[in-house]
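Self-study notes.
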Amino acid sequence: MRVYQPHLRYYLVNESAFSEEELAQRDTPLSGIFEVEKASKDADALQEAVQHLAARIRAHPEKARLDEVITRWLKRHLKRLGAEAEKALEQVNSLVEDNAMLAENLQTWAEKERQKGEAVGLQKGRQEGRQENARETAINLLALGLLDDDQIAQTTGLSLDEVKALRSEQPH
């Protein structure tokens, strides 16, 4: 069976063994890849990391092969950002040659993510406002003393436990 067993060689690169400062000093395509991986949560940092990576590839003697391999990796890596990012990456064939297009696409993606974040924040604020209005209404209904807790819960959309908690907070 030994003849059918694969013989693989590998080179272990332990990213966590290097600080960000050490990686920045190395100025290699591999350190650029690590920089992209670490920056993937922040669109502006990601854009900057991709620019640095492209510059490192341009300066490397094996730039054609590195560009091909790293561009393929980058496209797969950034697909997880969503459909918008994936659509923008379809047009990128070379990190070095299509760097301006990639930067523009990342900028567009970043702006859409910010807008999405703002919309989520606005929606969350509206929800909090509705919740506060429901609480105020429940407090007013409790003060009137005309409805029981179940009726107040139905009227305001609050849970029965929330209404009971508000009742216990009311001065007697």
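Second protein, same conventions, sequence then structure:
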Amino acid sequence: MIALQANKKLDLVSLASIPLIMTLGNSMLIPVLPEMERQLKIGSLQVSMIITVYSVVAIFLIPVAGYMSDQYGRKKIIIPSLIITAIGGLVSGLAAWFLKDSYWVILIGRLLQGIGAAGAFPIVLPLVGDMFKSDDDVSQGLGIIETANTFGKVLSPILGATLALVVWYLPFLSIPVFCLVSVVLVAWLVKVPRRADQKR
């Protein structure tokens, strides 16, 4: 078991970056919402949609992403999903930066982020199950993934507020950077089993 964990340590660290980034992508914006409301000159319902649209889209698309990962492979869904998440953050950030009336474009960016989130974090869980053969190793791997998710929940308000001190839309622009790091880690370090060996 120890040797197996050593062999898979980099894989798990790379995969753990995904729930961390997905949590940051949503929760990091929560402390910035009052400033968004002022800057965009919108109401509380409109500003709450910036958070809600991300989650609602992800919820509906998670089963689709799961099915596609069974058909085409886990990494073939995870990596494009991270790229879509990055594009969504870039769209929202650039809209806030350059457009005068940017609210609806920001929502489109958040919609893209939700689509990407559906194919990223949820697919990590079955991938961990694919990577290990013993139940103990699967449980330990899932524990590491959940720890990263929890750490993201703790870190996100601090990081979001800190970035917003520079400029209020910087949390949007930070997402593409985080996603790029995760794409590189997953692409180069995560070794997935053959599709025939994957659990559906």
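Instructor comment on the second fold: The chain is about 85% helix and 0% strand.
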